TrEMBL record:
GO terms for cellular component: plasma membrane. PANTHER family: MAGNESIUM TRANSPORT PROTEIN CORA. Belongs to the CorA metal ion transporter (MIT) (TC 1.A.35) family. InterPro entries: CorA_cytoplasmic_dom, CorA_MIT, CorA_TM1_TM2, MgTranspt_CorA/ZnTranspt_ZntB. It is found in: Cell inner membrane. GO terms for molecular function: cobalt ion transmembrane transporter activity; magnesium ion transmembrane transporter activity; nickel cation transmembrane transporter activity. Pfam families: CorA. Residues 167-187 are annotated as: Disordered. The chain crosses the membrane at residues 280-300, 312-332. It catalyses: Mg(2+)(in) = Mg(2+)(out). Gene3D superfamilies: CorA soluble domain-like (3.30.460.20), Magnesium transport protein CorA, transmembrane region (1.20.58.340). This is Magnesium transport protein CorA. It is a multi-pass membrane protein.
Length: 338
C-alpha cells in the first residue's frame, strides 16, 4: 500500500488513493509494498528502493549511505507494544530532492499518530525534512512512553519481590523491619510468574535500546548530511532528538541493570525457599534417627536381652525414643535453626 502526501501553499495533506506521484508529492509512505508498487516508485522518482531483505542488514554501511544525492537511512523501530508482542522491525527513510520516502513492513504507532496529526493540523509540517523530523520525534516520544510503562511495571514487580524477601525472613512488610509474631506464614509469591514478567520486561527493554541506538545513528547521519540544506529549525529539532535519544538510552541502561538485579534477587529467594524445604527434611531425619536406632536395637532377635523380661522394659523403650526425638528438636530451637 502507498500513501501519498502532497504539499500546497503552507499545507500538507493526504492525497486520495490512486493519485499520481507528481511534483507536488512530499511524502511517499510505503506500507508492506508489493513488487509492482516498488517498481512504480522507482519509475516515478528514479530511486532504488531497498527490499525487505536489504533492510534487514545490520552493518552501518548498508543502513546509512548516500547515493545519487539521496540519503538512505534505515532504523529499527519498535511496534506492536500494545498487543503484548513487541516487534523491532527495520524502517527505511529515503530523502531525495525534496521528497521523503518511507518503506516499512509493519505499522508502528508513531506513524499512525503522526499521520493523524498531519490530518488534524495540515499546516504544522510542510517540507520533506519537516516530515522526517516529525516522524523521528514521534518515534522517540513513543519509546519514552514505553520506557515509562516498563519502569512502572518494574517498580510493581520489585515491590512484590522484596516483600517476598521480607516474608521469607519472617519480617512483616511495613512493620519497621521487625519480625512478625503471627504463626501463620504468608503464602509465597508465584516465582514462575515473576521470572516470566522480568524476562518479558528485559526483552522489551533490549528492543527499546536497539531502537534507540539505531535512531541515534540515523539522527547523527542526517544531521551531518543535512547541514547547509535543512533549515535552522530542522537542525535544532535534530539536535533535540539526538539529546533525547542519549538520555533515553541512559535510562534504558538503568532499567536493564535493575532488571538484572531483580532477576538475581528472585533466584536468590527461590533458593532460600528451597533451602527451607531441605532444612525441614533434614530436621525430620535427625529427629527420627535416634528413635529409629533404639527401635532397631530392641528389634534384634537375640536370645539374651535382659530388657525384654522387664515389666517396665516396653514403657522405658518408648520413653527413651520420645526423649531422643525431643532432645535434638529442643537443641535446634534453642540455637535458632528452626
Amino acid at each position: 500500500m502507498i500513501n501519498l502526501y502532497v504539499t500546497e501553499p503552507g499545507v500538507l495533506r493526504r492525497a486520495p488513493a490512486g493519485s499520481p506521484i507528481d511534483e507536488t508529492v512530499v511524502w511517499v509512505d510505503m506500507v508492506d509494498p508489493s513488487m509492482e508498487e516498488l517498481h512504480r516508485v522507482d519509475q516515478a522518482l528514479g530511486v532504488d528502493i531497498p527490499t525487505k531483505e536489504e533492510m534487514r542488514e545490520i552493518e552501518a554501511s548498508s543502513r546509512l549511505y548516500e547515493e545519487d544525492g539521496a540519503l538512505y537511512m534505515t532504523a529499527t523501530v519498535l511496534s506492536s507494544v500494545e498487543t503484548g508482542s513487541p516487534v523491532a522491525s527495520a524502517i527505511t527513510f529515503v530523502l531525495t530532492h525534496g521528497r521523503l520516502i518511507t518503506v516499512r513492513h509493519t505499522d508502528p504507532l508513531p506513524f499512525r499518530a503522526f499521520a493523524t496529526h498531519v490530518d488534524r493540523h495540515p499546516g504544522a509540517v510542510t517540507g520533506a525534512e519537516g516530515v522526517l523530523f516529525g516522524l523521528l520525534e514521534a518515534i522517540v516520544d513513543r519509546l519514552a512512553d514505553v520506557l515509562e510503562l516498563v519502569g512502572a511495571e518494574i517498580d510493581q514487580v520489585s515491590q512484590t519481590v522484596f516483600e517476598a524477601g521480607q516474608r521469607t525472613r519472617g519480617i512483616t512488610p511495613g512493620n519497621g523491619g521487625k519480625t512478625g509474631k503471627s504463626n501463620q506464614r504468608p503464602p509465597a509469591p508465584d516465582y514462575e510468574a515473576l521470572i516470566a514478567a522480568i524476562g518479558r520486561m528485559g526483552d522489551l527493554t533490549s528492543k527499546i535500546r536497539e531502537s534507540l541506538v539505531s535512531i541515534g545513528r540515523l539522527a547523527g547521519f542526517a544531521g551531518r548530511n543535512l547541514r547547509g540544506r535543512a533549515s535552522k529549525t530542522g537542525l535544532a529539532a535534530m539536535k533535540t532528538i539526538t539529546r533525547d535519544v542519549v538520555s533515553l538510552s541512559d535510562h534504558a541502561s538503568y532499567l536493564a541493570n535493575k532488571l538484572s538485579f531483580m532477576l538475581d534477587a528472585t533466584l536468590g529467594l527461590i533458593q532460600i525457599e528451597q533451602n527451607g524445604i531441605i532444612k525441614i527434611f533434614s530436621v525430620v531425619a535427625v529427629v527420627f534417627l535416634p528413635p529409629t536406632l533404639i527401635a532397631s536395637i530392641y528389634g534384634m532377635n537375640f536370645e539374651v536381652m535382659p530388657e525384654l523380661s522387664w515389666h517396665l522394659g516396653y514403657p522405658l523403650a518408648l520413653l527413651m525414643m520420645v526423649g531422643s526425638a525431643v532432645l535434638p528438636y529442643w537443641l535446634f530451637k534453642r540455637r535458632g535453626w528452626l
